[in-house]
Design brief:
This protein has helices at about 10-20, 25-30, 35-60, 60-80. By secondary structure, it is mostly helical. The chain has one domain (about 10-80). It is globular, with a radius of gyration of 13 Å.
Length: about 80
């Protein structure tokens, strides 16, 4: 199970929306209608998902690197 801590309620809601898409085309169409800030948030959340999956699949080998990148991305959310 993928777990990403430290997200705001809005970011969690956006992740729920992202997970709801049945295919990439629908997701990309949705992204095209987003304001720039939300588009950047969605891109960062997708990156967080990818890193969390890598961390889960690769185990401890990449855990430190994945955690560092996740922290860096999450710190950008904290400043906005």
């Amino acid at each position: 199970m993928i777990k990403i801590d430290g997200l705001t309620r809005e970011q969690c809601e956006m992740l729920d929306t992202i997970w709801s898409f049945k295919n990439r085309e629908d997701f990309e169409e949705w992204q095209l209608g987003l304001p720039f800030k939300d588009l950047m948030t969605s891109a960062a959340l997708v990156e967080l998902i990818a890193l969390a999956i890598l961390e889960e699949d690769m185990g401890d080998e990449y855990k430190t690197e994945a955690e560092a990148v996740i922290q860096k991305i999450q710190s950008k959310f904290d400043t906005n």
